[in-house]
What we know:
Blueprint (H helix, E strand, L loop, with lengths): L3 E3 L4 E3 L8 H12 L4 E5 L7 H4 L8 H7 L33 H7 L35 H16 L6 E2 L6 H7 L2 E5 L2 H7 L11 H5 L2 H10 L2 E3 L1 H8 L8 H18 L11 H7 L12
Parallel strand pairs: 2-6, 3-5, 4-5
Antiparallel strand pairs: 1-2
Amino acid sequence: MCLAFPRQEGWRLEPPEPVGPPQTLLARLRTRAAGAPVAFGIDCPLGVPRAYAAGLTEAADFPTFLRQLRDRPGFFNVAATLADISPASPFYPARGVAGMKRLAHATALGLPDAAALCRACDRATAERPAGAPVFWTLGANQSGKAAISAWRDMLIPALHAPDPPCLWPFAGRFLKTLREAPLVVAETYPAEAMRQLGLHIAGSKRRQPDRAAYAADILRAMHQCAAIPANRLRQAILEGFGPGESGEDQFDCVLGVLCVLGVLTGTRPDTAPDDYWIKAWEGWVLGQTALPRR
């Protein structure tokens, strides 16, 4: 994660650091904020697709549904076979197996087609490719494992604690909610953040030299939102976040914090499209303006 702290003018950005135990992350962030509100962007789905949500009759919206999952631990068991999939156990697959197709996954969930596995914000736009479906857990293009960890280990316990966090966009406009709540959680997406920051895909962000090639553009984006990087962060950016396996994660979390700062400084909108399913169930990516291609 990458943290930004307000200065008299602008922001101070710290170098990426390990998240630590997810069960205590939100409490630790509030402690470090020393009473100030926390704007928390997370590279993780916050919401479920509308076709799936339409079959949920015991909750009015995604935050309510998430709270109820505390009493349904089996929800997070990843199905090993198509026969194990159900609305009560939607994550799939536990490993590579024959018949491992998204259409088969959708059919097992009672959805009409593979596209129904995706939320509106997961779909491709004119500016970026599609993201992964919420419940898919295998391969490089998946976000299901992040959803399981963040929902089960971090958000559900926090939602049952005193002074729970608010989830955007379900609680309303981001800036208004931040004035009223101690901590607001919003979904960010590195591929979307790159477009918002004016970074164009060149090579692969999995490779250190390609990450280093973005250095000038990242530093420019920081300057535009009055964010001053600590010396170690500036050096890490220039060096492409090093050769280690964590380099891509560090790169992504810096994009994420800049995405949040873009909204806080007013250069990106703090709203989601005026669509019932998005605002109640699917969620949206913070700062995104491009609508999905049909």
